[in-house]
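Now for our specimen.

. . .
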Amino acid sequence: MSTRHPRTADPGAEPIPASGPIPAAAVDDPAPPAPPNWAGFAGGLAVVLALGIGTHLLTEGVPAWSKGTAFGAIAKSIEFPIYAIVLGLLGNLVLTSTGLRDRLLPGFRTEFFIKTGLVLLGASINFAVIVRAAGPAIAQAVLLISFVFFFTWWIAGRLGVDDRLRALLSTAVSICGVSAAIAAAGAVKAKKEDLAYTASLVILFALPAIFIVPWLASLLGLSDAVTGAWIGGNIDTTAAVTAAGTLAGEQALQIATIVKVTQNALLGVAAILLTLYFTLRVERNESAQRPGAAAVWQRFPKFVLGFLAASVITTIYAGSVPAAVSSATIGVANDLRTWFLILAFVSIGLEFNASSIRRFGWRPVAAFGAATVANLVIGLGLSLLLFSSFVF
């Protein structure tokens, strides 16, 4: 498979809108690491916390304030992810217009907040549910990832997208969004503007999916298990999956999370296969270090282990103490989970970067959009096939 002609790099590319360090392999000319931006981190974190408190106040207050009005019935059904994302986007607009957003970017820690929240979510899921869902979740993950990855690779190639960018697009839409794009960027030595673009594109498509997929599931009359599997298998980012699952209900959220963490667990495998392909085919004449077990472990999403450990510990604990004590403990974990998820959803809105999307033209957007639609249709079919008979 031949390499497309690379585009000219844009020296004014926006920073990557994702928390965590940029893989060294994703940077063209490695430079000495910059000193930590503690002021930006503290300021950004303060903004996230302030908007998180605002989200909590709106979630609790709007139903009470609007009671007895025409809006009152609607207000009761508005969950905290909606308020959090809207406030995050409004904060993004204000910070961007004042020139402060890029300075505060280190404090928008979406990945940290969402992964901590998901580990806490594991504490509320009986491990027996995970065991029963593991088989169909693995089958769905392998089939869906394989189909969507190769479909995206094909359609992006037909549209003339260069190999490195289409590797990022294919991995992001088929596995787990921004985290997958970061791992793929290191594997294929992508330019940092490619990574910034892919991350922004993921968020652009994930935001409406948070609301559209649960609505479609309700419209189609899908069960909680099928709804959760559809959400977990199709929405690209783990944070957006959690938001959509929250809107769909607790049982749907549990299945959505199990399906998504199963996909996340395959991230290391996908990154290694990409490294091998680009080493042996695309960069055949370049010297490159062959990936090994250490690289697999480095790219493996460790929070998956925390999620499973929390579920095992809680299941054992619940079986050894009175039900009232267990319920109270899980209630505390759920409250903490809610706060971490609020901060994660606020950060999603704050991290969204529309400017990097306009720079690449319509072809990558068309490829990503086509892949998203294919992902949605095939994912629904697999969810119905594998989870229709699932019983909690």
Q: What stands out?
A: The two ends are 46 Å apart (CA to CA). Residues 242 and 268 are 21 Å apart (CA to CA). Residues 1-30 have pLDDT under 50 and may be disordered.
